[in-house]
Every structure is written in C-alpha cells, then in structure tokens.
Amino acid sequence: MVPRPVLIGCAVVAVFAGGFLRWWREPSRGAGPPGAETSLERLARLDRESSPDDAVAQGRLATEWVRLGLRSEDSQHLLRARIAARRALLIDPERVDALKVELLLLHHDHRFRELRDAAAGLAEQSPPDAFFVGLLGDAELELGRYDEAEAAYQRMMDLKPSHATYTRVGYLRLLLGDVDGAISVLKLAADSVDRRDGDSVARALCELGDAYLAKGSPDTAFEYFTVALTHSPALDRAHVGRGHVLRSRGQPEAAAEEYRVAVASRPRAGHRAFLADALAAAGHEEEARAESTRAVHDVADDAREHARLLLEQGGDLAQAEALARQEMTHRQDVFTQAVLAHALVSAGKVEEARPLAAAAVRLGTRNARLHHVAGLVEAASGNRDAARHHLDAALRGFPPLSPRAEAKARAMLEAWTPPANVGARAEGKHLP
C-alpha cells in the first residue's frame, strides 16, 4: 500500500494549484441545438441499423445501452444492453467490451459472488486492464471483504489512476471513516473527469457533496450540490443532497420540493421515501402516506431496500426480517448487516441483532442509519451510554432519519436525560 499516498499526495498539490477551482466557474456544455438527435434517439437508430452478426457494432451498442441504463435505471435500456452483449459474445466469446457489459449487469443484478469470480478471472487474463480489477474490488466491497476490496483498488491505482479509480478509493475511505482522506481523493476524481461530460462532472461534485455531509459540513455540501446542478440541472442526486441539507436546517417544505424534482427526474423508491419523510415533517400526512406506499411498491426488486422501508414505516416485521435474511445470503456489507440487525431488534431478537449491529459500525462509517440501528440495539441491550452515543450521532448525521425514527430516538434520549437538560435536547441542541 506504500505507493498510493505518494501518488495521491503529489496529485493533491497539482489540484490545489488551480485545477479544481475551474469546476466552480465553468459549467460544461449543455444539450445540443433544438431539433438535434438525442442520445436515446441516436442509440435506437444505431440499434435498428446494426447487424446482429457484427460483433464490433453489437459490443459498442451494449456499452452505450448499459451506460444509459445504469444512469436512468430503465430496465428496457439494460435489456437492450444484455441482448447486444450476448449477440457480440456469440460471435466473438473474447470480445472485451461485451464482457465488461456482462460484468456490469452482474453487479446490477446483485450477483456479487459471480461478479467477483468472473472479474478475478478476467483480471488474470488481462492484467493491464484496470476495469476488471475495479469491478473485482466492487464485488469484494458488496461482500463485506473490505481488505480485499482495498487491495483490488490499490492494484487499480497502480495500473491506471483515473476518475474511476479515485472515485472508488474515495468511497472506500468514506466507508472506513476517513472523511478528510476521502475528500482529498474525490477532489482528484472531480479534476480528472472529462469536462465535456456535464453529467459526469455533476456526479463527481455530488460525491464531494456527500463527503462533506459525512464530515458534518452541510453548508459546504449544499454548495457542491448547487454547482453540480449548473452542469446537469436534472441530476437527481444533487437535488436529493440539497433536500437533505434543507431538512437539517428545519425547512421541510423546501426539502420536499427538492425531493419532488429528484423523483420526477428519476423515480427511485429511495427518493420517494425521502419525499414522504419531508412531507410528513411538513405536516402533509396524507400525501406522505401516498408517497410511502409508492416507495414500497417500487422497491420490490431490491430486498434490502424493501426491508429497510418496511422497518422505517412500521410495516410487516416478519416480511422485513425475511427480506433482510435473503439479502444477507449474497451481500454481507455493513448496510445489509444494519438492516438485518434493525429487523431483529424490532422483533425482540436482541442477542442475534447485537453482533450484526456491532459489525455494521466497526469500520467507523459516518452514516446516520448505521448509528441509528446501533443505538437501538445498544438500548435494547441495556447499554445506555453506548446507545446515547449512537443515537446522538444518528440525529446529527446524514441521510436524515425518518420523522418516525427521529421522534423515537429523541424520546429515548430525553427519557435518559436529567430534567434540567430535557428542554435543550427537545430543541435539537447538542449537550456537553
């Protein structure tokens, strides 16, 4: 692991010598002139015009469809990517771009063990290709094998420092609780992205916004999300980030508007859940219930997220536990451990929940949801000081807890607080 700090340290100097600041001044190019063919129209035309027996054309189509599909989460785009990749591999089983698409689809389908094995094999066959090593690291991350993920990312860094490499290393550092280190690396990622690609620039800035949320600097995070929108005005994660900050400022109506734009841009269940939380916090109970119902309906294909939403909404505990256990059979990262621990402690299975909750916070990740679950489990175990530590961190952290979870956490803290301090806690003030 010796080369990485040296490499990153040199690059940080270059960035702060003037490279990064240009993102704050120069929005990238927007859409083409009125009447110009859109990316989707161009791809659809190429799909119609390309021969199914042309491996080169099908490989390129697969790459473009999967890129579009992963950003939009449109299942039809991903299906077209899958079909084009299979066509290419039928003609040329070693077609590299089609193999890469196959790996990306394994990741999308949460088939992480298959992804790890396939990526490891391809990395051995093509040692200079950092793409396979990066996906190997991604699979290890989802399987909760963080040392192995770090080793893979280090190999990727040694092969080819790039936007993709820096982004992965930054995310891993966030997971490990090294927020300042993550911010340094994510600035390298932002500086190395293709400036002509406004969407990628905006996403890189959102990575930094998320890191500043983890750092506890929501005002700085808000600025990053806002600048991101100058590069990609409809980017959902930028609106979600702004919504988080506005909720933390006690502005649920304004937060709801940000989440509403995010849902309109990309109707993900998680976005709907945030919108429902903001609406509930603003007193719009009926609309909040409707959005919550839609969120649970839309998340049916993601067992972990489905379980988490059921738990947050006070839904079917047995179903939530079954879904979380199902997810743990093929994904053992800290977030899946936390969801299962939440389901177990909610069902009164404290002994089984305790090691999972401890594992979920062992890395030092600054995430409100992880601290919230750890606080619930410590409270159920009778460890009041530990519970207080985690619940305080959950209430201060991001993403914001649901109003229901927040009210419960505050009630627990107030019940343990001497009468002289109850008023301060009720107002959300931090006590010494």
From TrEMBL:
Please name the Pfam families in this protein's record: TPR_16, TPR_8
InterPro entries linked to this entry: TPR-like_helical_dom_sf, TPR_rpt
Ordered alphabetically, the record's keywords are: Membrane, Repeat, TPR repeat, Transmembrane, Transmembrane helix
This protein's source sits in the domain of life called: Bacteria
**DNA-binding found in the keyword field:** no
Q: Which residues form a coiled coil?
A: none
Q: Which residues cross the membrane?
A: 6-24
Query: Which regions does the record annotate with the repeat TPR?
Result: 130-163, 202-235
> Know the name of this protein?
Tetratricopeptide repeat protein
- The organism of origin for this protein: Myxococcus landrumensis
